[in-house]
Every structure is written in structure tokens, then in C-alpha cells.
């Protein structure tokens, strides 16, 4: 599973004010100033080597720099408990108490994914995935939200929930096409989507439904390579079903997109019923 921005491995996290290095009554100006000092000291360019500490500082500042998030956190500090020589905050318990709000469901999904609680994360995501509140980008930075949903798609696939995985992947590809969030990792996403369509869905869908799904996958236009392979698979299935004219159309489209795709020439000759290539449009 692809990793996303994490809290520490244990369930508890340090008091956010202590992480930033200010008192609970600190002003926004003081919080911002303290954050800059902490961030500078921990940044790799200035000799910092503790990535975990840097992540904690960023997360603490994200919460404390927003007035509403800070008020909610301050109310949650009533749950502070003894922990070693200092105090700790049960962030998961704090989120569980607020699940009437979609924002906290989304945040708990994210938290559970990071702490090897994938089943719990999926159960929560199932509650919101078909609603507007299920869009994690409403509550997180776009790249983080996309990373989290890619992890969800992978977890669905690991459990044999291929159709659910496909639905999430479709949305992620549409998001990436609108505005990049995955960056260089998008090649991995496309490869996983290709395997999901060509192998995983084939195991669970009836032929006619699978043909429709292939057509939908092609219409998304995830990449020329993906589309060519989807068209090849569609041509193979149509040919086996005796729908030769449709198979020829599919294979011709694949030839236009990727004429050097392995196995494509042989399939084209087989479908054409001769030793000649079918005419390309």
C-alpha cells in the first residue's frame, strides 16, 4: 500500500502546543513564529534529519493555525492523560466522539489507514463514499486525499472488492486529468488501474457486463497504452462471442493507438480471417 502522511506509530500523539513550543494561550502570531523556528530547525536543507518530528510539527501547525480546528482541539484537550513524563492526546478517541460530522469520518479514515486499521478505515469510508461528504479532498490537501483514496482502492482490491476498487480508481483518474495530484506516481496508478480492469474485474463480471465495463474504461481515456490494451481485450471477447464486426472495430482502434503492442498483430490477423491486416480507419 502506498504510504501517506503519518502520525507516529503509537496510538497517542504529543500535545500540539508542546510540539510547536508555545503555551495554550499563545496568539496566532506567536504560533506562526514558533512554527517557523521549528520547521527551519527540522528541515533537511538546514541539517534536520528527523522526518517524523517534521511531520508532527506540520500537523500541529495545520490544526493550531486554523481558528475552528484549534477550538475543537482545545475542547479535546480535556482528554489529556498522563503519559510517561508528560501528557498525550488520544486523537482517535477524539475523532470517534465526533463522527456525526463528515469531516471527522474522513479524518478517521485517513488516521486508520496510517495505523494499520484498514478494515476500520474501509467500514467508515463505506458510510460516506457515495455522498458529497465522501470526497476526501474537501478535508485534506488534494495530493493527500488522492493518496488516501488510492490506498482505499488497493485495500478494496486486496479483499476481492474489485468493483468498489474500480469505482474509486475511476474517480481518481478523473481528478488527475483535471489537475495533477499524483505527480510521478501516476504511472503506478495507471498500471494498477490497467491490472484491475484486465485481470481483477474479469474474474467477477459476466461477459456482457465486462464488455460494458471495458467500454467505460476506454471512454475514460486514462492513457493510450491502457486504452489499446482495453480495446484488445474487448476485441478478444467480442470475437469469442461471434461478434466479429464489433471485434474488428475494436482491434482497428487498438492498432491506431499502439500498433506495436505485443500480440496485437496476431489477433488482428485472426479476427480478419486472413493473412492480411485489417484496414485501419
Overall pLDDT score? 83
Low-confidence stretches: 2-13, 78-86, 274-281
Helical proportion, percent range: 55-70%
Number of strands: 3
Tertiary shape: elongated
Strand percentage lies at under 5%
Structural class, from secondary structure content?
mainly alpha
Instruction: State the distance separating the first and last CA atoms.
Output: 42 Å
Q: Major beta sheet, specifics?
A: 3 strands, antiparallel
- Strand arrangement in the largest pleated sheet: 1-3-2
Q: How many helices does DSSP assign?
A: 14
Alpha-carbon Rg, integer: 25 Å
Order of helices and strands: EHHHHEEHHHHHHHHHH
Count structural domains.
3
Give me the secondary-structure topology.
Elements: E1 13-14, H1 16-20, H2 28-42, H3 51-64, H4 67-76, E2 81-83, E3 86-89, H5 91-96, H6 102-114, H7 118-128, H8 142-158, H9 162-178, H10 186-204, H11 207-220, H12 224-240, H13 244-257, H14 264-272
Helix pairs in contact: 2-3, 6-7, 8-9, 9-10, 10-11, 10-12, 11-12, 12-13, 13-14
Amino acid at each position: 500500500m502506498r504510504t501517506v502522511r503519518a502520525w507516529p506509530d503509537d496510538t497517542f500523539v504529543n500535545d500540539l502546543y508542546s510540539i510547536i513550543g508555545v503555551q495554550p494561550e499563545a496568539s496566532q502570531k506567536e504560533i506562526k513564529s514558533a512554527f517557523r523556528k521549528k520547521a527551519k530547525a527540522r528541515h533537511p536543507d538546514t541539517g534536520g534529519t528527523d522526518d517524523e518530528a517534521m511531520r508532527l510539527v506540520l500537523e500541529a501547525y495545520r490544526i493550531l493555525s486554523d481558528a475552528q480546528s484549534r477550538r475543537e482541539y482545545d475542547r479535546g484537550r480535556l482528554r489529556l492523560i498522563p503519559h510517561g513524563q508528560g501528557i498525550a492526546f488520544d486523537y482517535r478517541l477524539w475523532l470517534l466522539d465526533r463522527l456525526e460530522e463528515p469531516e471527522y469520518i474522513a479524518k478517521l479514515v485517513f488516521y486508520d489507514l496510517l495505523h494499520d486499521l484498514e478494515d476500520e478505515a474501509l467500514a467508515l469510508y463505506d458510510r460516506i463514499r457515495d455522498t458529497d461528504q465522501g470526497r476526501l479532498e474537501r478535508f485534506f490537501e488534494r495530493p493527500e486525499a488522492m493518496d488516501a483514496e488510492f490506498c482505499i482502492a488497493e485495500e478494496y482490491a486486496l479483499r476481492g472488492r474489485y468493483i468498489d476498487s474500480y469505482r474509486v480508481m475511476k474517480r481518481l483518474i478523473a481528478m488527475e486529468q483535471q489537475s495533477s495530484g499524483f505527480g510521478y506516481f501516476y504511472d503506478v496508478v495507471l498500471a494498477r488501474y490497467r491490472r484491475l480492469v484486465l485481470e481483477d474485474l474479469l474474474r467477477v463480471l459476466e461477459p456482457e457486463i465486462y464488455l460494458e465495463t471495458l467500454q467505460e474504461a476506454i471512454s475514460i481515456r486514462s492513457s493510450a497504452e491502457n486504452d489499446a490494451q482495453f480495446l484488445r481485450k474487448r476485441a478478444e471477447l467480442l470475437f469469442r462471442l461471434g461478434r466479429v464486426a464489433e471485434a474488428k472495430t475494436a482491434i482497428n482502434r487498438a492498432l491506431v493507438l499502439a500498433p506495436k503492442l505485443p500480440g496485437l498483430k496476431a489477433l488482428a490477423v485472426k479476427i480478419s480471417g486472413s493473412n492480411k491486416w485489417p484496414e485501419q480507419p
